[in-house]
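User: Hey, my collaborator sent me this sequence without any context and asked if I could get a structure. I don't really work with proteins. Can you help?
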Amino acid sequence: MRARDAARTGLYVHVPFCAVRCTYCHFATAVFEHGLLERWLAALEREAALRAPLAGGTRFTSVFFGGGTPSAISARHFSRLWDALRRNFTLAPDAEVTLEANPESVRPALLDAWAAAGVNRLSLGAQSFEPDALRVLGRVHDEHRPGEALALARRHGFERLSLDLMYGWPGHTLEAFERSLDRALAFDLEHLSAYAFIPDRGNPLGDAVLDGRAEVVDDDTQARMYGTFLAWARAAGLHPYETSNVSRPGAEARHNLVYWLRREYLGLGPSAHSLWAGDRWGNVPDTAQWAAVLEAGEAPDVARERESATSVAEEVVMLALRLATGLRPADYTPLTWAAVERRFGAALAAAVSGRRLERTEQGWRVPPEARFVADDVIAWVAARGRD
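Assistant: No problem. I've predicted the 3D structure and written it out in structure-token form, which is a compact way to encode the shape of the chain:
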């Protein structure tokens, strides 16, 4: 996997603004308001300058603009944001630069600004192509807009396009998911993601499920949805590389792999997380509070912790086993792998004996037929780690 080797260090930028908050959203977002947008951008410039000394000498191999809705900010604001990043950080010449976009906000002027800045990969959130589902999910666009946005992006020279789908929310059916999946695959994409709905407190759909007013799709139906996703994607030339993600060979999301392989990344913006030089931290989630901390000349991070050999080993196993290629000793330093082997060597062997994992030439992986329950397999291995 070429992307696996190229995924070395990531830079994440959180753009919190949304025109409308989706009914399933649990991310840190803010109401789109001009004054707060200007304040966020000025604070982002401060944080970039604050974090720059940490990254001295580092060439970032990926940049990811997430949200929120990064495509909701104007071309002028995006150019200012990009200038702040280039002033403070160094990007590898072939860096992957991804921007998340909502279909309704993709416009020619923005596409030109993104391309001029160096964005070379767009990830569009469609979630569904069913009108009723889009209303349930609180999406602003209609069922035609994702295709129009993808076509527009192609005309503006974007060669790497990804689309997100969701499945399993209350009232969703296998037949409806198949129709959306068929529509998505017809676009000849480089990358496709399908995420199971997870009820979280604090949004309408999540609250309805957790309060007993609605039920998610049963496990058997969700398993069939997931199996259909993998089978139809493979038939279209898209192969799984992570539990929820498929791509054409060589089109794996490099920035995603930075996370799954536990390589270093810096996060800027409210709620952004970082893993750098053995330290882990998250930023203040509220946009106004995050900006206020930076305006006071202080670092906006909270919950900072120093990693230990135990925490590193646990994360290595938890994250790598989500990859289709699995857990490979060659991906880690000898010191890190020694900690993994010491803590989980016996558990990995027992998982192979019990057919929860399979041994490969490079390491261990969850068998393809068990991908839908990969989290259960990982939990089984983690519970048997030695202190």
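In plain terms: Residues 309-383 form one domain. You can pass these tokens on to your collaborator as they are.
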